């Protein structure tokens, strides 16, 4: 009995005597093939399993620390946690199969104890590996998101170093020498889920334009969509605002969104310019109380002119329209009549239809405007000045808000 036990013990220790034995290398290579992962990610794991099977040893803290480092390394190399788990499981059962030839003479209790020890090491190693891999992935994702936010901010601001922007744009698949345009989407109320909308729009944009020269992000409560300035993947021109509108309509069940897109421009500064056009269009639409929908920057050009020379706009409104404040009930009704009159092509009957009043009421109000301001809407030159003043008042929010004081 003693001789047999001694012989068995010597045979059992043979595999663990040298962790670099050929049979361990064969197991590592076969497991790596199963898991489609490099065998280097096993580290000393096979030795740990062999020691557990032969001696019943648990994994030591320093060994688990080494496995933890391997988990981080796998994440940095882009190897998925599933691949790594398959690698470790394959290594375990392959090693056990080889060990069975060595320990086949053991009784059932010895085999049970060896299997239990191997499973403990397997559980400890895989748990540590996966935890470390996931922690590293979360850290990498946070880092990537931070880099993405910084890049988007610098790209849209337009004052960063062009050479650095070109270098940073490459990982995002952007060629800043090409033409791009920027579209913006913002919810008409606080219920809009901007982050969810960005995910949906990114899928739609990639499907329509391909995965290069596009970028979808969020900024200041808006979804930012950067697309090529020419056409989509099909080669046909794509109206990006209509594409966004259709996707958001399905996502939010009719919840209103304001959309605007700048014109396409070439270069890094062109992206910032297109973004500024879209942003300004949304800002003006909000100030003007325009209903949610697609805001075309070209339709707001006159307001951009008025907004850029606020002092002149204030003077125009003060000189031409503030006399309307002397009307009974204030200037609101007369301003509304003037706006409808101009929008209807200076036709009193159409104005009356739009306002649901009689033609006589419209002509009376226009006469009151002439009496209070001294300006006749029937005169083309005067009518133009009044129309610009009315739009300026709308932009300034007068008479609901007081006119800004001159500096």
Describe the structure.
- With 407 residues, the protein is an alpha+beta fold.
- It folds into 3 domains: 2-139, Orthogonal Bundle (Globin-like), CATH 1.10.490; 166-303, Reverse transcriptase/Diguanylate cyclase domain (Alpha-Beta Plaits), CATH 3.30.70; 309-396, PucR C-terminal helix-turn-helix domain (Arc Repressor Mutant, subunit A), CATH 1.10.10.
- The protein is built from 16 helices and 6 strands.
- Strands 1, 2, 3, 4, 5 and 6 form a 6-stranded mixed β-sheet that branches.
- A hairpin with a 2-residue loop joins strand 2 (215-219) and strand 3.
- It is rod-shaped.
- It starts with a helix and ends in an 11-residue tail after the last helix.
- The relative contact order is 0.06.
- The model is unreliable at 1-20 (pLDDT under 50).
The helix tally amounts to 16
Radius of gyration: 36 Å
Q: Let me know the largest β-sheet.
A: 6 strands, mixed
Helix/sheet category: alpha+beta
Helix content: 55-70%
